[in-house]
Write a structure and sequence with these properties.
The chain has a domain of 63 residues: Arc Repressor Mutant, subunit A (Orthogonal Bundle), CATH 1.10.10. The chain is built from four helices and two strands.
Length: 144
């Protein structure tokens, strides 16, 4: 009697997101119970770290920074953005559960490509005349 090989299940991105949400819902009460006595320390992370946690591009994080609870560190409009991972994860899961799977703005498509440039139809400037003998004429007989 030989053991059967394990079956590998391939899920599409929507199925993976749904599975992740279901697992988070099941594990959240257990984790809360285990960690309930421990004081919660707020740890802020940068966009690259959050992107790695969520499996999306940094561009997607910046695009949704307001919804993910971004905190601007420093003065002015160019201050660095930092995120509370718990708040951001909750917002991302909530955003994913509301989104239509057919919505073109999926996390994978968040880094949209630039539109292609159309090929040039040429300029309106004419060619400049060539003066002098730059190339030998093809009509001259070859020495031979």
């Amino acid at each position: 009697m030989s053991a059967a090989a394990p079956t590998r299940v391939v899920l599409n991105p929507a199925q993976r997101a749904e599975l992740a949400r279901d697992l988070a819902r099941e594990l959240a009460p257990l984790l809360a119970e285990l960690l309930g006595a421990a004081p919660r320390r707020s740890r802020l992370i940068d966009a690259a770290t959050l992107a790695g946690m969520l499996g999306v591009s940094r561009h997607a994080i910046y695009q949704h920074s307001r919804a993910l609870g971004a905190i601007r560190i420093g003065d002015g409009p160019r201050g660095r953005l930092r995120f509370d991972p718990d708040t951001a994860l909750e917002a991302w899961i909530h955003r994913s559960s509301r989104r239509n799977p057919q919505d073109p703005e999926t996390p994978a498509a968040a880094g949209k490509t630039r539109p292609r440039r159309r090929p040039s139809t040429g300029s309106k400037a004419g060619l400049l005349p060539i003066e002098g003998d730059l190339l030998p004429l093809a009509t001259e007989p070859r020495a031979g």
